[in-house]
């Protein structure tokens, strides 16, 4: 084997996954077909749960150094959501261009000695019982690389997904839109990031968001964008026509920094795992970028997959651990597809839809409705099923306000004696005595490397040992 894992795609999903694998000591390589970073950013935010997962490993602070702002709010199809009520260390969206997140994640890989091969495109692969042979076209020509596993994190038009031939059900795009970063002469130049304002209009809708230094992000769609090929260049004329519809009164266009087209296509791959090949991020799901979720969903896929794949590579994974990646993440992706479809519907410029938007905006001023939808868009309400564990409000949820810098499991106990129960797993699970703040009074809590609770209980019992075995593998002999 040349590597344990080959990751195809150096976007946010592939780079976070490579960091997780590098942290676990896995021999991993990232193949990225772009010879250099473009510096372009589709996404501009980290949701609270993404901030939490980065913080678990100690990687959030250096990312915050590159952030522009924080916003104590999210939105659902343009209707504001108050994040201040959320139970998290980070009750806000971090305003940061995607390119800066990628830049940090790529530079951080050097700490683990993980290579990123730029200008290297995966063109095909074949898998057998022992591994995957990947064909790579690079500056020095075409060559084969072999690894135990391949992860396709190669975006919405994933070559890995197409080569697998796995089903990608859903529907194609009905509406085409344009995203562009433009410099405006008479635009709002204070650079204060805010939630996009949005009102559906018959002649076409436009979101306008100041990014600072006179640069604005615009998203627009109208009759002029429909039926146009997705790869057709965006013209200056259509940008000017869209700007004429902007609320703030026809700002003057000085420069288009970059522009591209996207649609509301909504699809999700049937299986996230096919033998030794896994899919993550946009390679596994595409949807309308509404509410600022896609990058966050992909990074959280990577966080769910990393520790499981590392255990598998080390030969320490219990049966079914790697399959739990699909079982846990497919429903989460499906829920995001559902909410983005609903948000897309609310953008239709129709008086009846406007009536629905007004009703919804009113509902969302109520604290319970706000908490429900904010919990969903922020990623904080994700709860994985934990079969066979005793029912408890924390079970399957993420435990807020903990640190897991080593990427290992954590057994939080209210009294020192509890810790002995996990000794046979101490090469994989750390233990800490806490004063009840995390341990729900007298209960002990077992936390997976991704911060999700997989067992809670008042005493050591067979259920605890079963949970340790289920998530961390067989106990090791402990010498007294
Ligand atoms: C207009 C727009 C606005 C958006 N805004 C937001 C937002 O505000 N918030 C949010 O959370 N999300 C947003 N998104 C979604 C977000 O940008 C994506 O979900 C995110 O980029 C997915 O990351 P990824 O790493 O899975 O895929 P990508 O970012 O697509 O990365 C895939 C990488 O793989 C490389 N690659 C492709 N094929 C190969 C190959 N064969 N071999 C090697 N390398 C390959 C590509 O060059 C690329 O670098 C937006 C999307 C759009 C279109």
UniProtKB/TrEMBL annotation:
<dbReference type="Pfam" id="PF21274">
    <property type="entry name" value="Rng_hyd_C"/>
</dbReference>
<keyword id="KW-0274">FAD</keyword>
<protein>
    <submittedName>
        <fullName>FAD-dependent oxidoreductase</fullName>
    </submittedName>
</protein>
<keyword id="KW-0285">Flavoprotein</keyword>
<dbReference type="InterPro" id="IPR050641">
    <property type="entry name" value="RIFMO-like"/>
</dbReference>
<dbReference type="GO" id="GO:0071949">
    <property type="term" value="F:FAD binding"/>
</dbReference>
<feature type="domain" description="FAD-binding">
    <location>
        <begin position="3"/>
        <end position="340"/>
    </location>
</feature>
<dbReference type="Pfam" id="PF01494">
    <property type="entry name" value="FAD_binding_3"/>
</dbReference>
<dbReference type="InterPro" id="IPR036188">
    <property type="entry name" value="FAD/NAD-bd_sf"/>
</dbReference>
<dbReference type="GO" id="GO:0016709">
    <property type="term" value="F:oxidoreductase activity, acting on paired donors, with incorporation or reduction of molecular oxygen, NAD(P)H as one donor, and incorporation of one atom of oxygen"/>
</dbReference>
<dbReference type="InterPro" id="IPR002938">
    <property type="entry name" value="FAD-bd"/>
</dbReference>
């Amino acid at each position: 084997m040349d590597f344990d894992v080959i990751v195809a795609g150096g976007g946010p999903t592939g780079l976070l996954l490579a960091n997780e694998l590098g942290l676990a000591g896995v021999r991993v390589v990232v193949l990225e077909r772009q010879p250099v970073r473009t510096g372009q950013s589709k996404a501009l935010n980290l949701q609270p749960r993404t901030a939490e997962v980065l913080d678990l490993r100690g990687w959030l602070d250096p990312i915050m150094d590159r952030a522009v702002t924080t916003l104590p709010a999210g939105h659902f199809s343009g209707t504001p959501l108050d994040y201040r009520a959320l139970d998290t260390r980070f009750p806000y969206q971090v305003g940061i261009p995607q390119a800066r997140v990628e830049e940090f994640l790529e530079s951080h890989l050097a700490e683990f000695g993980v290579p990123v091969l730029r200008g290297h495109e995966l063109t095909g692969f074949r898998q057998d019982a022992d591994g995957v042979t990947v064909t790579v076209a690079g500056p020095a020509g075409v060559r084969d690389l072999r690894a135990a596993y391949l992860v396709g994190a190669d975006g919405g038009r994933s070559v890995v997904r197409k080569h697998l031939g796995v089903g990608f059900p859903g529907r194609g795009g009905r509406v085409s839109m344009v995203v562009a970063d433009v410099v405006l002469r008479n635009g709002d130049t204070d650079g204060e990031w805010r939630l996009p304002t949005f009102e559906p209009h018959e002649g076409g809708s436009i979101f306008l968001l100041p990014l600072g230094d006179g640069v604005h992000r615009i998203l627009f769609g109208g009759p002029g964008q429909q039926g146009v090929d997705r790869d057709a260049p965006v013209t200056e004329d259509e940008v000017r026509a869209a700007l004429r519809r902007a609320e703030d009164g026809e700002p003057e266009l000085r420069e288009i920094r970059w522009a591209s087209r996207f649609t509301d296509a909504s699809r999700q791959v049937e299986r996230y795992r096919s033998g030794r090949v896994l899919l993550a991020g946009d390679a596994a799901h595409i949807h309308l970028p509404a509410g600022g979720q896609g990058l966050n969903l992909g990074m959280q896929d990577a966080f769910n997959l990393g520790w499981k794949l590392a255990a598998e590579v080390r030969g320490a994974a219990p049966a079914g651990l790697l399959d739990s990646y699909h079982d846990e993440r497919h429903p989460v992706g499906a829920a995001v597809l559902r909410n983005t479809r609903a948000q897309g519907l609310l953008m239709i410029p129709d008086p009846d839809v406007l009536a629905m938007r007004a009703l919804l905006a009113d509902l969302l001023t109520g604290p319970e409705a706000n908490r429900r939808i904010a919990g969903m868009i922020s990623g904080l309400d994700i709860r994985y099923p934990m079969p066979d564990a005793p029912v408890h409000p924390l079970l399957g949820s993420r435990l807020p306000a903990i640190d897991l810098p080593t990427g290992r499991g954590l057994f939080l106990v209210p009294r020192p004696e509890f810790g002995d129960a996990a000794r046979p797993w101490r090469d994989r699970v750390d233990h800490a005595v806490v004063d009840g703040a995390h341990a729900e009074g007298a209960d002990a809590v077992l936390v997976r490397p991704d911060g999700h609770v997989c067992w809670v209980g008042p005493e050591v019992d067979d259920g605890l040992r079963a949970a340790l075995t289920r998530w961390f593998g067989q106990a090791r002999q402990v010498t007294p």
